[in-house]
Amino acid sequence: MRVRTVTGVAGSTAAYHVEGDLVGVLVCHGFAGSGLSVRPAVAAAGHTVAMPLLPGHGTSWQDLEQTTWIDWYDEVGRNLLGLRERCLDVFVFGFSMGGAPSLRLAQRHPEVIAGLVLVNPAIATRDWRVRLIGRIPALTRAVRTAPGIDGDVMKPGVGQTGYEIVPTRAVHELTRLWRAVRADLAAVAAPTLVYRSRVDHVVDDSSIDLLRTRLPNRPVIEMVENSYHVATLDNDASGIIDGSLTWLARHRRHG
User: Fold this and answer.
1) Longest CA pairwise span in the chain (Å)
2) Active-site residue 200, yes or no?
3) Engineering a disulfide at 214: which of 63, 132, 185, 228 sits with its beta carbon 3.0 to 4.6 angstroms away?
4) Which member of 37, 229, 234, 236 is catalytic?
């Protein structure tokens, strides 16, 4: 087993790579967060896992301010191609904002990705403030930062997993990523499993509505009853992990 770690937010293991069997799993963490919010428990099944630290994440919000959505996408793309070289089947797991690059990979590399698992994915919002930043990039110079979105967890005792403040320039880049993904949802051929928290104080239902109505293959949507947005660290985490692994085994292309 070969593991590479990068120290990031609150001393977390922000990047995680482990060699396993011929099933590869690429894990995409959320906006302004780190790998701490998406624990690589899938490795317990013996699979090969790549959980990259997206550029500008796991260090400081000032670093995030200097990145673009292309930087984030290119990083997950490199990891996807690395898994393709070593594995027969490759799946992509995405949490929150990580759902957007996951879908983008499925659009651009349909021959590689056997399936997607998304947890409270974000590709849109009804929040007028985010939409305004998306339409008027000059606002990011007038208002440089905004409060972070970390900590939406029902379970007590879960610590910080992301930045307490976020650069508005990165929020603008996030909206650009969303637009690119939404424009080509019809190209997502991979079977898709979505876990959606019944109560989510970060991501509204506009994203799940788009996936339900615009993906060519209707996604399987599992409602999560006892967790908020960061469901991967909340009360339902073990059920999400077990269900994801069962779904993955069912959708392998090379048994």
Assistant:
1) 54
2) yes
3) 185
4) 229
